[in-house]
């Protein structure tokens, strides 16, 4: 089960917050080969690789319109209602992130503003495998639509029979995404980065995936194609005092642990008794979980740490910079300003992480692996560029001109100075 | 001079917007060696490398307090006034970018918001060389201060005598930055990324530099340290119709070209006469520029393109995605919504790029090399993380619980479902 640590010295914290290192360098040569193949052979390469990796002979790369439309009848009313509710909440929350241009006259006649402009073409990757992550499609598709991205491409690997899970098709349809390419893995990333006859090259690629997808996205950094976030295994840190409910805490830890053996789970408490009770609950709840093998392995790499008080727990959490932070403490309202590093924060005993994973409205694509020290999760901002504009009147240039000339000259950039001087001469002649 | 192209076919545009490829892979092994040296030997490595590359024997790595304070007396009143004016304008513009948390109740009892939290520690790199880029220090330091970053480290290589240009010291002092490390190149990036006894490891590194600095920053992508933007040579695209002033346009093109031989300069016009007049002006103005050798080389790689109308010019510009876009056209106000890809836009005949480079208030750290298709320039946002929060009441969980349970079950994640179910049971018992 969890590794138990009592009152670690501050000097040891740095070691405790380290995530297990992942080495994927071995994969790079193979992925570079996939990139070359897709660049050289385009759609043919996608067909060959899909046959090879997914065992599917693709005729059309894209799901047909009737295939997408059929999803509606394939899902239960209950699931459709749930997806619609989540869609609505996510839309409501992300719509508030829209920024209106504010004109600022920094000096008389010098007016500046910035404007959010959608990224033209974005690519969304949704992994296949056992769990059809339609929730991730909502988390990426809703802000892409709200931002106004002109073209949204969805790539997802086909299932054994060549079809795509109905929940993915239904969600895509709800989002107005009609381009679902049945392509997965590094070849999907290559197709969206470089373009093929069928799949247009996009400006930014979003979405989770296995290590091939993760490394492929990372390898794009030199190509000019942006990615959402550097990726790592998902993680949660729970801060629990005596007021916490041990069964709830254990359930939250397990909901993270079931993602996979490499998930990171950390429990901090100022109560040794709470730590023990959570451990007992973990044992009991784990026994009946369908994914208990994944969860048990994840727990083996996880930490239960006893600390002296809430301040220490927050300090440790800030150093760890968790993707998800759950505050199961009585005075959470008083300590909100002390949280400096986290992806998304869940407050009190009735705000489980799974609420944010699915339906409360916040995004679940978040910085892992301590990236929360410098990165934000996906939001509406991730789908726009903020372009600055300025307009200077002749009188404005007379106000600001001298400042520019003096600074440019001091930096030894005479042509920069001259671009102002030549205009000022003209203005003075008028 | 510029390469002249008349009415290129749309099929050829993709080729025309390509930047000259830069290959820096050869530098990576040497930089990796510098990284190792700094990680192993810390401050000693910084002293050795500064001796080697800058010819300076450092005693203290940091500029002394009296050295910083002395700058005030070393600058002209005129330059200090200019820096203060620019500081004030940049502050005014960036202060407007602050986002206040807005609580959204997505369902009754389910409240979500996001909050901007400063990045704890940031590192600013300012290159040395002939031009002391105190303007870049303003562009990075002002938003870092406004964001509230707790620790700001400035690295800049020392001049021949071991001192730092007074304009850099003065600007740092104005920004309240008292940690000026006399370290440059890849060793400065390594120090800020990995930390030494004297220089703390930072969470994000900002600032321009030569190819060693650029590649060093790029190599950090796997280490968890964030960087401001991927870098490339600076560039401007000017759209000029008959209403433009050829002398102003030439001055703007030259202000970009003087940055260096690899600067990118593009002029679009729907008037062959305007193109010719700008060429004549370029010749005349170039002849008297101190940095004419750089500028002449940059112009050789540059393009003057004749297109049919404003719509075509905007379409070409959007495909090119310039760092700086100058609209010297009479109806610029009517076409603002057609601009989809650009870093910063300058409107009309009296808004030279150098205004934004120095003093109008907008930031001059902008996406080059077509990164403007997906990236924004540096802003207040670059110095914060936007952390989401949520609080759900027991009644709120009753409202949203079913949605989460149904979605989690459909994704096969029973522990996610259970984190809700276990709480709902408790609520129903109350």
UniProtKB/TrEMBL annotation, chains A, B:
Active-site residues from the entry: 323 (proton acceptor), 324 (proton acceptor)
BP GO annotations: L-histidine biosynthetic process
EC number: 1.1.1.23
PROSITE patterns associated with the record: HISOL_DEHYDROGENASE (PS00611)
Keyword vocabulary terms for this entry: Amino-acid biosynthesis, Histidine biosynthesis, Metal-binding, NAD, Oxidoreductase, Zinc
Cofactor note: Binds 1 zinc ion per subunit.
Cofactors that this protein relies on: Zn(2+)
Family (UniProt): Belongs to the histidinol dehydrogenase family.
Function: Catalyzes the sequential NAD-dependent oxidations of L-histidinol to L-histidinaldehyde and then to L-histidine.
Protein name, entry field: Histidinol dehydrogenase
Organism from which the protein derives: Pontibacter ramchanderi
Name of the gene this protein is made from: hisD
């Amino acid at each position: 089960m969890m590794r138990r640590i009592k009152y670690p010295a501050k000097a040891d914290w740095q070691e405790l917050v380290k995530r297990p290192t992942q080495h994927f360098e071995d994969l790079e040569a193979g992925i570079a080969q996939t990139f070359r193949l897709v660049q050289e052979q385009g759609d043919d390469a996608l067909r060959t690789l899909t046959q090879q990796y997914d065992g599917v002979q693709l005729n059309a790369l894209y799901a047909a319109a009737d295939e997408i439309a059929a999803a509606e009848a394939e899902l239960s009313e209950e699931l459709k209602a749930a997806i619609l509710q989540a869609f609505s909440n996510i839309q409501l929350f992300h719509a508030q992130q829209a920024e209106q241009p504010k004109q600022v006259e920094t000096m008389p006649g010098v007016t500046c503003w910035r404007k959010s402009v959608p990224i033209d073409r974005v690519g969304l990757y949704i992994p296949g495998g056992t769990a059809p992550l339609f929730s991730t499609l909502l988390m990426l598709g809703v802000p892409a639509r709200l931002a106004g991205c002109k073209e949204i491409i969805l790539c997802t690997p086909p299932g054994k029979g060549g079809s795509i899970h109905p929940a993915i098709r239904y969600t895509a349809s709800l989002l107005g995404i009609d381009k679902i390419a049945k392509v997965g893995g590094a070849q999907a990333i290559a197709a969206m980065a470089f373009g093929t006859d069928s799949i247009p090259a996009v400006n930014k690629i979003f979405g989770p995936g296995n290590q091939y997808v993760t490394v492929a996205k990372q390898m794009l950094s030199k190509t000019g194609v942006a990615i959402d976030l550097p990726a790592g295994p998902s993680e949660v840190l729970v801060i629990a005092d005596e007021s916490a409910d041990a069964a709830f805490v254990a359930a939250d830890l397990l909901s993270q642990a079931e993602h996979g053996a490499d998930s990171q789970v950390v429990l901090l408490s100022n109560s040794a008794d709470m730590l023990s009770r959570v451990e007992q609950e973990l044992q009991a709840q784990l026994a009946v979980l369908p994914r208990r093998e994944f969860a048990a392995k994840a727990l083996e790499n996880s930490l239960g740490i006893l600390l002296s008080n809430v301040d220490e727990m927050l300090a440790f959490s800030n150093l760890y910079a968790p993707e998800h932070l759950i505050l199961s403490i009585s005075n959470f309202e008083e300590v909100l300003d002390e949280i400096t590093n986290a992806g998304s924060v869940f407050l009190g005993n009735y705000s489980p992480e799974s609420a944010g994973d699915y339906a409360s409205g916040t995004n679940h694509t978040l910085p892992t692996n301590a990236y929360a020290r410098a990165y934000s999760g996906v939001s509406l901002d991730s789908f726009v560029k903020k372009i600055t504009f300025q307009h200077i009147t002749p009188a404005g240039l007379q106000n600001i001109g001298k400042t520019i000339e003096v600074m440019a000259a001091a930096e030894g950039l005479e042509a920069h100075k001259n671009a102002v001087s030549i205009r000022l001469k003209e203005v003075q002649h008028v």
